[in-house]
Design brief:
CATH architecture of the largest domain: 3-Layer(aba) Sandwich
Number of helices: 24
Structural class: mainly alpha
CATH class of the largest domain: Alpha Beta
Shape: globular
CATH topology of the largest domain: Rossmann fold
Distance between the termini: 21 Å
Strand order of the largest sheet: 2-1-3-4
Strand content: 5-15%
Helix content: 40-55%
Radius of gyration: 23 Å
Number of domains: 3
Number of strands: 8
């Protein structure tokens, strides 16, 4: 391949500042107002439904690796419940110790930050295993939203949101750098498919598909974007990229800041309207899928007049319709599949990637457990950007590392770039000796192309 154009990595600058609280009476009162504003009737029911059975502890990769009570999902839920009971329950106001109610003070806020940000990836596995059906991940995000309103999101995570708001994407890639990268990859695509007419189109009005991606792809994993382009080429798809709004990620989802999340999501909606596109196709990004497919219409209070699909759903449809042909003999290593939490447990995209891989490789082995019961890799919830808690993240990832090792796989397929980053770190830390790829990369390597097409 030709040398890749250099892109300045604004988001990768190290967070050298320590986290400090500066909470006066006014800020604490603001926190209470935010908490009361955000909490709804159904949330109150959730807060008081916990029966302390412990099943959430057995489902949490943090608790299973550190055995710290602060890592138990029920404990994190209790941090919110204790404040609610202190402010809203009669006994909590008169005899707070009787029911474990707690005042809002710096100690409680510090505990919120440590537990809600530092001990949770919002993976939702605890909610799946809760016999009372409590949506613990939702409530933890609610608590994060209160901290966000106080300006108490850990700086390394908040910076990613700020960069996205300021620059249009979370890596701070400017327009010219992006266009140069697309042009470079287009040249590589033409070589691979032996067709000078092959393209990675930009701003094509009236195309059927707008494809949006994680900015880490052009920055660090350009082959995943090249793979998607190759698949669209083979399927003879009408598609385009956007010059200005190409970022599928939304870290406002992780900080609990609905206002910022809505602002970021609106950009893609506006781009769909401007280019008159039918389908918004999201690259392999777990929270990007959840944010744009399920959460964004709620944040924006609108019903979309276009479809939103994962690239996995699109590739699976190409296979079923015969629009692409694959030769699994081209992929002869042992492959396993990691299930991203937001894509699978929250998103409902479960079987498409399995159907694709079974048609793309000769040797596919499932992890155990798998599908919606699979363990989080540890990279979600903004954890990759939460540098103060990096050591915990790697330790919590031991569960995933052991799952991978037991499969005997040589290649882990992870349809999410946050998951890929985390698994690559786990690979190094736990000496797994694996390769990590996206689904699109596996498919692209198995494609049977018509070499006479010009």
């Amino acid at each position: 391949m030709n040398e890749k154009p250099e892109i300045k990595n604004i988001a990768a600058e190290k967070d050298k500042k320590t986290f400090r609280l500066d909470l006066d009476k006014e800020k604490l009162e603001k926190a209470l107002r935010l908490f009361k504003l955000k909490i709804k009737t159904e949330d109150v029911a959730y807060l008081n439904a916990c029966v302390h059975c412990g099943l959430c502890a057995d489902s949490c990769h943090y608790f299973l690796t550190d055995k710290n009570r602060n890592s138990i999902p029920g404990y994190k839920l209790g941090l919110l419940r204790d404040l609610f009971n202190r402010e809203n329950i009669f006994l909590g106001k008169i005899f707070p110790r009787w029911i474990g109610a707690r005042d809002l003070n710096e100690d409680l806020i510090e505990n919120w930050i440590d537990s809600l940000f530092g001990r949770c990836s919002l993976c939702g596995r605890c909610s799946l295993n809760c016999p009372m059906g409590i949506n613990i991940a939702y409530l933890i995000r609610l608590g994060r939203g209160v901290l966000s309103g106080l300006g108490l999101v850990p700086e390394s995570l908040q910076r990613v949101v700020d960069i996205a708001l300021e620059k249009g994407n979370n890596m701070g890639i400017d327009e010219e750098e992006w266009k140069e990268t697309v042009k470079w990859l287009e040249e590589e695509l033409r070589k691979e498919v032996n067709d000078p007419a092959a393209s990675l189109p930009l701003d094509r009005k009236g195309a059927k598909i707008l494809y949006v991606l994680n900015p880490r792809e052009p920055m660090f994993f350009p082959l995943s974007l090249l793979a998607a382009g190759k698949i669209f080429y083979a399927a003879k798809e009408s598609w385009t990229l956007s010059t200005k709004n190409f970022d599928v990620t939304n870290y406002g989802f992780y900080t609990g800041d609905d206002e910022s999340a809505a602002h970021i999501a609106k950009r893609l909606v506006s781009e769909m309207e401007k280019l008159k596109i039918e389908i918004l196709v999201l690259s392999e990004c777990g929270h990007g899928f959840n944010s744009n497919r399920w959460e964004a219409p709620e944040w924006l209070r609108m019903r979309y007049d276009f479809e939103v699909k994962s690239i996995l759903e699109v590739i699976a449809s190409y296979l079923r319709q015969g629009r692409i042909k694959l030769d699994p003999a081209k992929n002869q290593k042992i492959y396993t599949l990691h299930d991203p939490c937001n894509l699978v447990r929250f998103g409902g995209v479960i079987e498409e990637q399995r159907y694709i891989l079974k048609n793309s490789v000769l040797n596919f082995k499932e992890m155990n457990p798998n599908r919606e019961k699979n363990f989080c890799c540890g990279g979600g919830g903004g954890q990759l950007s939460l540098t103060p808690f990096a050591e915990r993240r790697i330790k919590a990832g031991k569960i995933k590392a052991e799952q991978i090792r037991k499969t005997g796989a040589q290649v882990v397929v992870a349809p999410c770039h946050n998951c890929i980053d985390q698994i690559m770190e786990l690979n190094k830390h736990y000496d797994l000796r694996i390769e990590v790829l996206t689904v699109a990369e596996v498919v692209a390597s198995a494609l049977k192309l018509n070499r006479n097409r010009v």
